[in-house]
Specification:
Radius of gyration: 14 Å
Helix content: 25-40%
Order of helices and strands: HEHEEEEHEHEH
CATH architecture: 3-Layer(aba) Sandwich
Number of helices: 5
Largest sheet: 5 strands, parallel
CATH topology: Rossmann fold
CATH class: Alpha Beta
Strand order of the largest sheet: 2-1-5-6-7
Number of strands: 7
Shape: globular
CATH superfamily: NAD(P)-binding Rossmann-like Domain
Length: 142
Protein backbone atom coordinates (compact mmCIF):
# COMPACT_ATOMS: atom_id res chain seq x y z
CA UNK A 1 0.00 0.00 0.00
CA UNK A 2 1.27 3.46 -0.92
CA UNK A 3 1.74 5.67 2.13
CA UNK A 4 0.18 9.10 1.79
CA UNK A 5 1.54 10.46 5.09
CA UNK A 6 4.95 11.95 4.30
CA UNK A 7 7.64 14.09 5.87
CA UNK A 8 10.00 16.83 4.71
CA UNK A 9 9.73 18.16 1.19
CA UNK A 10 7.04 15.67 0.24
CA UNK A 11 4.90 16.90 3.16
CA UNK A 12 5.50 20.52 2.10
CA UNK A 13 4.32 19.67 -1.42
CA UNK A 14 1.23 17.96 0.00
CA UNK A 15 0.44 21.01 2.13
CA UNK A 16 0.86 23.26 -0.93
CA UNK A 17 -1.57 21.05 -2.84
CA UNK A 18 -4.13 21.02 -0.03
CA UNK A 19 -4.02 24.79 0.39
CA UNK A 20 -4.30 25.36 -3.37
CA UNK A 21 -7.11 22.89 -4.04
CA UNK A 22 -9.24 23.55 -0.95
CA UNK A 23 -12.18 25.95 -1.00
CA UNK A 24 -14.51 24.55 1.69
CA UNK A 25 -13.21 23.65 5.16
CA UNK A 26 -15.18 21.89 7.88
CA UNK A 27 -13.66 23.02 11.19
CA UNK A 28 -14.41 20.22 13.66
CA UNK A 29 -14.30 21.33 17.27
CA UNK A 30 -14.56 25.04 16.49
CA UNK A 31 -15.28 27.36 19.41
CA UNK A 32 -17.36 30.53 19.41
CA UNK A 33 -14.86 32.11 21.81
CA UNK A 34 -12.58 34.50 19.88
CA UNK A 35 -9.59 33.75 22.11
CA UNK A 36 -9.59 30.03 21.26
CA UNK A 37 -7.22 28.80 18.52
CA UNK A 38 -10.01 27.04 16.63
CA UNK A 39 -11.92 30.31 16.33
CA UNK A 40 -8.94 32.47 15.37
CA UNK A 41 -7.68 29.95 12.80
CA UNK A 42 -11.15 29.64 11.25
CA UNK A 43 -11.48 33.42 11.10
CA UNK A 44 -8.05 33.66 9.44
CA UNK A 45 -9.08 31.06 6.85
CA UNK A 46 -12.38 32.86 6.23
CA UNK A 47 -10.55 36.18 5.75
CA UNK A 48 -8.45 34.52 3.06
CA UNK A 49 -11.44 33.40 1.03
CA UNK A 50 -12.01 29.88 2.30
CA UNK A 51 -15.58 28.88 3.13
CA UNK A 52 -15.75 27.74 6.74
CA UNK A 53 -18.28 25.17 7.93
CA UNK A 54 -18.34 25.04 11.74
CA UNK A 55 -18.83 21.58 13.24
CA UNK A 56 -19.69 21.59 16.93
CA UNK A 57 -22.87 20.10 18.45
CA UNK A 58 -23.01 22.81 21.12
CA UNK A 59 -23.20 25.73 18.66
CA UNK A 60 -25.77 27.09 16.21
CA UNK A 61 -23.57 29.64 14.40
CA UNK A 62 -19.94 30.75 14.30
CA UNK A 63 -18.36 33.49 12.21
CA UNK A 64 -21.66 34.07 10.43
CA UNK A 65 -21.92 30.43 9.30
CA UNK A 66 -24.43 27.81 10.41
CA UNK A 67 -22.83 25.24 12.71
CA UNK A 68 -23.56 21.54 12.34
CA UNK A 69 -23.49 18.90 15.09
CA UNK A 70 -21.30 16.49 13.09
CA UNK A 71 -19.64 16.06 9.70
CA UNK A 72 -22.49 13.74 8.73
CA UNK A 73 -24.90 16.67 9.09
CA UNK A 74 -22.98 19.00 6.74
CA UNK A 75 -25.17 19.35 3.61
CA UNK A 76 -22.44 20.39 1.16
CA UNK A 77 -19.25 18.73 -0.11
CA UNK A 78 -16.17 19.46 2.01
CA UNK A 79 -12.66 19.70 0.61
CA UNK A 80 -10.78 19.73 3.91
CA UNK A 81 -11.66 18.52 7.39
CA UNK A 82 -9.63 20.55 9.92
CA UNK A 83 -9.72 18.95 13.39
CA UNK A 84 -9.41 20.77 16.72
CA UNK A 85 -10.18 17.85 19.03
CA UNK A 86 -8.25 15.57 21.36
CA UNK A 87 -6.21 12.95 19.53
CA UNK A 88 -8.31 10.16 21.05
CA UNK A 89 -11.44 11.68 19.46
CA UNK A 90 -10.07 11.67 15.91
CA UNK A 91 -10.71 8.10 14.58
CA UNK A 92 -14.51 8.43 14.47
CA UNK A 93 -14.12 11.87 12.87
CA UNK A 94 -11.89 10.28 10.24
CA UNK A 95 -14.58 7.67 9.58
CA UNK A 96 -17.15 10.45 9.11
CA UNK A 97 -14.78 12.30 6.77
CA UNK A 98 -14.40 9.16 4.67
CA UNK A 99 -18.18 8.66 4.49
CA UNK A 100 -18.66 12.35 3.64
CA UNK A 101 -16.19 12.15 0.76
CA UNK A 102 -13.75 14.74 2.12
CA UNK A 103 -10.72 15.24 -0.12
CA UNK A 104 -8.19 16.07 2.62
CA UNK A 105 -7.85 15.66 6.39
CA UNK A 106 -5.85 17.92 8.71
CA UNK A 107 -5.11 17.47 12.42
CA UNK A 108 -4.05 20.72 14.07
CA UNK A 109 -0.95 21.17 16.25
CA UNK A 110 -0.90 18.70 19.11
CA UNK A 111 -3.41 16.40 17.41
CA UNK A 112 -2.08 13.08 16.14
CA UNK A 113 -3.74 9.74 15.50
CA UNK A 114 -1.99 6.95 13.65
CA UNK A 115 -5.22 4.95 13.76
CA UNK A 116 -7.10 7.75 11.96
CA UNK A 117 -4.22 8.31 9.54
CA UNK A 118 -4.18 4.63 8.58
CA UNK A 119 -7.95 4.60 7.97
CA UNK A 120 -7.75 7.75 5.87
CA UNK A 121 -4.78 6.44 3.89
CA UNK A 122 -6.67 3.23 3.10
CA UNK A 123 -9.49 5.44 1.77
CA UNK A 124 -7.03 7.46 -0.36
CA UNK A 125 -7.41 10.68 1.64
CA UNK A 126 -4.18 12.69 2.17
CA UNK A 127 -3.47 13.50 5.82
CA UNK A 128 -1.56 16.20 7.70
CA UNK A 129 -0.98 15.73 11.44
CA UNK A 130 0.30 18.04 14.16
CA UNK A 131 0.50 21.14 11.96
CA UNK A 132 -1.35 24.46 12.07
CA UNK A 133 -3.06 25.41 8.81
CA UNK A 134 -2.83 29.12 9.71
CA UNK A 135 0.93 28.90 10.28
CA UNK A 136 1.34 26.99 7.01
CA UNK A 137 -0.52 29.73 5.14
CA UNK A 138 1.55 32.43 6.87
CA UNK A 139 4.74 30.55 6.00
CA UNK A 140 3.66 30.75 2.36
CA UNK A 141 2.89 34.47 2.56
CA UNK A 142 -0.89 33.99 2.43
Amino acid sequence: MKRIFKKGLVMEALIDRILAETRTIAVVGISDKPDRPSHSVARYLQERGYRIIPVNPALKEVLGETAYPSLSDVPVPVDLVDVFRKSADVPPIADEAIRAGARFFWMQEGVESDEARERLERAGIPVVMDRCVKKELEKRGR
